[in-house]
Amino acid sequence: MHTLEQLQSGALTGTTHLKLSCGLTHFPMEILQLADTLEVLDLSGNSLTALPQEFARLTKLRIVFLSNNPFTELPVVLGRCGHLEMIGFKACQIETVPENSIPASCRWLILTDNKITHLPASIGNCTQMQKLMLAGNRLQALPQELANCKNLELLRISANQLQQLPDWLFNLPKLAWLAFAGNPCSASNLAQHKVQTTNWNHLGIEEQLGEGASGIIYKAKVKPETNPILPEEVAVKVFKGSVTSDGLPEDEINASLVAGAHPNLVETLAILTGHPEKKQGLVMGLIPEGFSNLGGPPSFSTITRDTFPPGTTFTLPHVLTIARGIASVLVHLQAKGVLHGDVYAHNTLVNKHGNPLFGDFGAATVFDNTKAPLAVNLERVEVRAFGCLLDDLLQHLAPVPAEDSQTVKALKSLRDQCLQTDLIQRPSFLEIETSLTDI
Fold first, then answer.
1. Residues 56 and 79: beta-carbon distance below 8 Å
2. Percent of the chain topping pLDDT 70
3. Phi and psi angles of residue 119, each rounded to the nearest 5 degrees, phi first
């Protein structure tokens, strides 16, 4: 974090990254003095409502974050910033997105948790767009022009007012990660079984285990006299707020319950009640020791693809075990009418044997799987995500002996089938599971 005093004194001359959060009500014009070098600007958490026209002089700027500022309109001047690739205006008060306010160079746009009712037709000019985050708005429809965004891979439109998904959505050749829960066009049925609940006061919260976009996960001990059904130790996920980058906590809870049990799924045990701050939460099975994340989340540079530490390798037996386990989970979820929406290595845990545990339903959508065309289309979107995961595994495959070359060839062929740009030509998860069994 930098200070306004540093900026005004010239101490930040030549910097490429600038972050200021100090109650700003007006854009500091001294930032323009960094135009020759500034690439990343973060002015989140201030009180800004507008940007000056001179903002376009920041010609080196690639990434800008202006979240948690009371903007009511996306600044038109952004459209004149020809090198902007990532734009973040999360949790502002934006109602209007003017025509030509989104530069054609934009690859990652975050407008989560605003009050947007319409998107401009000019968004169709953003043909490099790969990631579009629109959860928690008031959209009733998506503009037809968005169909021009052929590079779009991840779309978050949960918690809006969409009456239906447009047909052209399934013609986007690279769409792989889709979330649309919390709309009239998504199912909202809760799991058809009695839901176990556990009171916060019946849990002894211990250390924090992890943190994601939607919540914080803790290890906890269950007081045995309060709930004899639950295991002695559990994991507790406490949701941070009402809207996440993927959607609403209640939709994640719903999807987790509908998903039910599977050997390769992190088990959901109960809904949390009685939190002192009235936050929502889930009680889940504690991950056994020896499991770790298969990969890391995407970076600013990879945008939609997971990251892996340098030197990461997977043996062929591990690749097969992971792929078979995740394919089995996805067959199960499809049968339940659950689109996971976030099939990624960073949502997959593995042990030393390669056995996977899959979880995190933050982007999941419950849908009516009796509607055959919709069910097939949604499945084939998710199949592409599985293809990306399989590609990640193969990209990090350790050298194999000559006698295993045909197995590797078969895996690459299956990956290519999953990644086909014509959605309907991709295999189903049942076909994928069968293929992996036969390899």
1. no
2. 98
3. -105, 145
Q: Could you tell me how far CA 71 lies from the centroid of its own chain?
A: 24
3 state DSSP class of 242: coil
Alpha carbon distance 298, 221 (integer Å): 33
Give the C-alpha separation, 336 to 16, whole Å: 48
Q: Residue length, the chain? A: 439
Q: Is residue 63 part of a domain?
A: no
Domain count, the chain: 2
Phi, psi dihedrals of residue 159, rounded to the nearest 5° = 55, 45
CB of 105 closer than 8 Å to CB of 128: yes
Task: Extract the tokens encoding 220.
Answer: 């906890």
Assign 18 to helix, strand or coil.
strand
Which residues are paired to 358 by β-bridges?
Answer: 265, 348
Q: Mark whether 252 and 272 lie in a shared domain.
A: yes
Spatial separation of the C-alpha atoms in residues 108 and 63, rounded to whole Å: 9
pLDDT at 315 over 80: yes
Instruction: Please state the φ and ψ torsions of residue 152, each to the nearest 5 degrees.
Output: -65, 125
Quick one: which of 76, 63, 77 has its CA closest to 110?
Answer: 63
Least confident window among 75-84, 141-150, 182-191, 251-260: 182-191
Q: Extract the tokens encoding 260.
A: 């039910």
User: Are residues 406 and 297 part of one domain?
Assistant: yes
Give yes or no for a contact between 100 and 123, defined as CB atoms under 8 angstroms apart: no
Phi-psi region of 101 (alpha: psi -120 to 50; beta: other; left: phi over 0): alpha
CA distance 332 to 317: 23
Q: What's the pLDDT at 245?
A: 84
Please answer whether residues 93 and 117 qualify as being in contact, where contact means their C-beta atoms are separated by less than 8 angstroms. no
DSSP 410: H
Residue 122's SS3 state is: helix
Q: How far apart are the two ends of the chain, measured CA to CA in Å? A: 52
Measured in degrees and rounded to the nearest 5, phi and psi for residue 282 equal: -130, 145
Mean pLDDT over residues 267-292, rounded? 93
**Which residues form the domain of 434?**
292-438
Pairing between β-strand 63-65 and β-strand 40-42 as defined by DSSP bridges: parallel
HSE value, Cβ hemisphere, 13 Å, CA-based, for 71: 30
In this predicted structure, the answer to whether residue 135 has a pLDDT above a threshold of 60 is yes
